[in-house]
Amino acid sequence: MNRFVMLIIVLLLAASVAGGLFVVDEGQQAIVTRFGKPVGEVRYAGLGFKIPFIEQVHRFEKRILKWDGDPNQITTKEKKFIWVDTTARWRIKDPLKFYMTVASISGAQSRLDDIIDSVVRDAISGNYLVDLVRGATYKAPVGGYIVEEVLESAGRRNREQILSDILEKASASTPEYGIELIDVQVKRLNYIDKVLEKVYERMISERNKVAAEYRSEGEGTKAEILGQMEKELRRIRSEAFKTATEIKGKADASAASIYADAYNRDAEFYTFFKTLESIEKTATGNSKMVISTDSEFFRYFKDSKLANP
Known about the structure:
It contains eight helices and nine strands. By secondary structure, it is α+β, with helices and mostly antiparallel strands.
């Protein structure tokens, strides 16, 4: 009986010792609570001991965690309605504060919802949309077709500065919950559906305007090319007509010189020949010609030495 009691005692002691040992994995941090109140220091990776049945171990992530907010409809400084989708990275820096304030990851996510959403809403509503999407190194393309809105220039900031301000303001509220906020980024900015339709219409109108300008420039270039072509064609025709006229003039002059030379050699024969040629041209085909003896033709034959040798 004594051996049996000793065995039970040994087993109970072994169970107590085994129940008092715990392991914290790499990438985790833990605190021990006694009746719901933290005791001791934060435990990190390794083997630890707690009082069985009285103390309890609470493990928390030591690694960087991700927060994703719900997309919100926010108005920018120029009163444009947009959807804003935000994300952030955070980690548990003080497990004791974290446990005492939010207790769990889900509680921390809920608290970050309130903090980050509020800061992001203020930042979006206090800045212009163009500043929210343009980086510090943005430069307008030279010679491009860009429609710039007329906005006040005072107090303008770029996207990196706005995100830096969001992180700074949001980080100011997280240490009291044992949370360190590492980074806040805007995943997506977009117009709401009604505004998006108007934006697409405006983009189409602008592209049509650009296309019309290109077409107008093309028509102007086309007219200029056709004008140059017509001018060149007229010049070629004029030079060709000039050359043809000169050649014809030289030919006429040469023919006249030949005729004159032939006429000078035998003027009487030339006159006689031209007269016969005229008669031939006048009396052609079946036509009949009635002339008197006083006609120039007969008078010439009467007086001609060739007709009366």
